Amino acid sequence: MNKDQMLSLIEELSNAPGVSGFEDEVVALLRRHAAGLGELSEDAMRNLYVKRPAGKEGLPVLQLDAHSDEIGFMVRAIRPNGTLDFVTLGGWPAASIPSHRVLIRNSDGAYVPGIVASKPPHFMNEAERKALPEITSMAIDIGASSDREVREEYRIPVAAPVIPDAAFEYQAAHDIMIGKAFDNRLGCAAIVATLRELAGAELGVELTGAFASQEETGLRGATVTAQRVKPDIAICFEGCPADDTVMESYAVQTAVKKGPMLRHIDARMITSPRFQRFALDMAARKGIPVQEGVRTGGATNGGVIHLSGKAVPVIVIGIPSRYIHTHYSIASYSDFENAVKLACEVIRALSGPIIEGF
User: Fold this and answer.
1) 239 and 339 inside one domain
2) Contact 208/60 with Cβ under 8 angstroms?
3) 0.85 surpassed by pTM
4) Hey, CA dihedral for 79, 83, 84, 85, is it positive or negative?
5) Catalytic residue among 11, 23, 215, 216
6) Domain that holds residue 192
């Protein structure tokens, strides 16, 4: 795929609604774009698999992982005044939620716009003005005036999924992408791009792309994909949190436009040191810019994949994205492109004996 085609795919995936547990529209998009790349199948969790045709019998299995869900909300209750109580799906910083637009999927499958509202400062006392916002004090306002109107006219039920309302854009002059759900629709696009790049190539591994659901609510989908794929080795693509605007310069490890980030550790996994070294050395040989990260928090699907079967060497190729877990993220297409390049070079170089050495 050329750059314009790839950006079009990223735009479609970024704009698509798909909070945890409601990934249907994202999966439909991925099915369309993965057509012809391998055998497509799904399971009951809406995990999507693309199994590339095997070149030889008995090759080790490599799982390409990315999660299809995004953070969002769910309607918890409908208040008598027509506003909506909600709960979060995934980790949200409460201060980033108020005053943003959202879309609520109603019983007919249509999306109703709303705004996350909180008490205006005019009606706050001094203590409320100084306090950090709490999600329990917020509500979604769709313009209704009664619970009857919400249910009967807007057709919004309890448990309706709610997504951030944000549109993708690409600033070509600065190579900057802005949009929602870069965590982890960028990873989903990277799997498609990698499979397309390697289509027809003779490889030393059998390749399966797995788009996992419900990562943001506890790595749930990948717990299943790892059982089904039974990988001998895995590469996780992730839209990872960029730190270049929030850390002192000496501590920055995930800067936009500096290449993909390969983490050595996070809250759920110590990355396979030998596989990590193999990937970092490959990047150096091929002139692909990369960054190395040591994370004290956060996790990826690698956290469950590396503990599956008889243990699986896993690396995470992260695409730096500023302000993930909010309505908007900022990322560079060049970092996405280099993430795909690195994955392709690593995969081309892998073989059974090399993997056994990890």
Assistant:
1) yes
2) no
3) yes
4) negative
5) 215
6) 3-70+180-356
